[in-house]
Amino acid sequence: MAVYTTITQTEAQQLFKPLGEIKKFEGIREGVENTNYLVHLNDSKKYILTIFEKRTNEKDLPYFNKLMRLFHNNGVSCPLSVTIKNEDLFRINEKPCCIYSFVEGRPLLEINKEKLNSLGSSIAHLHKSGINSKLFRKNMMLLPSWKNITESFSRNSTKIHIDEYNYILDNINFLQDKFPDNLRQINIHADLFKDNIFFLDNQVSGFIDFFFSCTDTVVYDLATFINAWFFQDNKFLENEYLNFLKSYQNNFELNNDEKNELNFYLKVSAIRFFLTRLYDLHFNIEGDVKHKNPIEFFEIFKFHEKHNIQDFF
Predict the structure, then answer these.
(1) What pLDDT score does 1 carry?
(2) Cα angle 156, 159, 164; round to 5
(3) Closest by CA position to 289, among listed 14, 46, 54
(4) What is the pLDDT of residue 262?
């Protein structure tokens, strides 16, 4: 989430007119992908207005909205697109946008065992809900994105002269032909960072930001979550991870092939976020946005080269 496209409350009111009168309208600065506004109406209802920017393909929006509906229908708390006159895709300032229902809660500030138990069961339920659906979207943030980003860096070589990038580039060349083809594919969130999972008290209250969702392996989604949640100051939070894993495995069973590929996908996911953060830092510089440090994921990648936490299964 971020603010790239600035719109006025008057402009937003034209879109929201069938829903009511806007009382308060404010941009949400967190995140780096799309523009988001929190909209308060006079009847006290709250919505999120999302304006989709460059990285989100407008053709993918029906998939995202249908997937959130699928998860919701399976008991997963998540936003739902609002329909006006039988449409849930709109345009504002010549950009595609959607209105989403508001999910109560806040991202986690402090972690404890009860919250880890809730995370384990909630993510297991999310994964169960993504199985056996005809919905399909290719994961564009791995090999296709790696190719596009590294080519962008090659064309602008004066901007990228860091040892970490060269090290990751060597590993991309080594790993890109080693993706397994024997793992089950389901619909996943693919961006399970702390700011995309909300809590009320000690319980998960909902998931947001499904705009990288796709059809891929369960273990890739799990790997992204692990990298995002269980590293702090370049240290692996082993006890917290084990508490989460116990709860997750009590509610969702990974098969042996998936378990054996966890280390591979932990490294793959670290590369994905290192590259996109590095790209955003150099090229995604418009709008009111706070960039995140790519080196964090370089250090996580290095950790997974030395340690194999799939041994905890």
Answers:
(1) 43
(2) 110
(3) 54
(4) 98
CA distance 223 to 192: 10
Instruction: Specify the 3-state DSSP secondary structure of 216.
Output: strand
Kindly report the average pLDDT of the chain as a whole number. 94
Tens of pLDDT, residue by residue over 4-61, are 899 999 999 999 999 999 999 999 877 567 999 999 999 999 999 999 988 899 999 9
Burial class of 152 by CB neighbour count within 10 A (0 to 12, 13 to 18, 19+): middle
Structural domains in the chain plus CATH codes: 9-101 (3.30.200.20), 106-312 (3.90.1200.10)
Distance CA 79, CA 129 (A): 15
Check if the beta carbon of residue 2 is closer than 8 Å to that of residue 288.
yes
Judge whether 227 and 270 are in contact, CB under 8 Å: yes
Q: Enumerate long-range contacts of 134-137, CB under 8 Å, 24 or more apart.
A: 135/63, 135/66, 135/67, 135/70, 135/187, 135/215, 136/63, 136/187, 136/215, 137/60, 137/63, 137/213, 137/214, 137/215
Q: What pTM does this model have?
A: 0.94
